[in-house]
Design goal:
Layout lengths: L1 E4 L4 E6 L5 E7 L3 H4 L2 E4 L12 E5 L2 E4 L9 E3 L15 E2 L2 E4 L5 E4 L12 E2 L10 H18 L2 H15 L24 H17 L4 H16 L26 H18 L3 H17 L15 H4 L2 H15 L3 H18 L1
Helix pairs in contact: 2-3, 2-4, 3-4, 4-5, 4-6, 6-7, 6-9
Amino acid sequence: MIASGGLDGTVRIWVDTDEEETIGALKLEDEAAVNGYALDINEAGVNGDGMGGVTYENGAFGFEHDTPRDDMSVDGGGSSDKEQPEAQKFNLGTLKVVKADFNIETMSGPPALADINTLAQTNPKGFLNDYYDDEGWWALGWIQAFDVTQNEEYLDTAVDIFNDMAKGATTPCGNQNQPIWWDKKKTYVNAIANELYLSVASHLANRIPSNGTYLTSAQNQWKWFQESGLINAQNTINDGLTTACKNNNGTVWSYNQGVILGALVELSKATGNPSLLDTAATIATAAIKALSDEDGILHDVCEPNCGADGAQFKGVFMRNLRLLQNEAPDDEIEKFIGANAASIWKAQH
């Protein structure tokens, strides 16, 4: 089943059958006209599987099927500014859920979407949505594209994204040095969004040294992060903060131990301060100790059912660990990287 947000403000929901069948259309301009509108897709379903009814009431879709499905998606339309000039005015909408174990599940289609507003965001320049961590990943991706191509448009895109991320610095958990929210609904202050904010700022500081704003932002963000309590007594990083701005003792995920490494490598370059690499090495060593089995293989506690987001966490850690290893070589870390690469190879062959 696909929910598609059109540029005309219409949301169309249909199922894939032998011949694409449009089940219904909801006009967003007039909510009153669609309240109580029901879409019955029991007979068509997805892959012949009955899905139950779909309703729209007071700005929200309701779906009777209660488990996420891999064959569901939301199409916000368009893939690039050049291919479709209007595309980036309506970005792909997502809904994220923080689960009980602090794993984050990203959902881009029913039955997860609870708010019709998540289907389309209007007026951004592009690659923005309701979650600052998503924006951070995009910014780092565009910076890497700039590094490869030296195309200034890619760097400009990263700057635009960073400027939007900076608008999230309205949390109650900082004074002079202000962290950012995880989401634009201001529900959670977590490690990953703030690590990505630090990393993007540090990357930009190295690529646009003429603008001191990025270095200042990076230094202030790192000072806050050190003082926030997110780094626990074991030198690993918990998932986030409580509403009282205290460490929530959330799961020690591998990606939270990883992004900070790459951020500190970049900040070390920007400041010329090698002690930041020592701090990164301390976090890396603690993470390896906390998250590895007796054979030295990295694991997350969600395995083997980590979802689409959690399945990527270890890769994030290893990518950033390699960045640290390139700048501050360590024999034990090199062995760890090699052992994990060999484990993957063995599992695939």
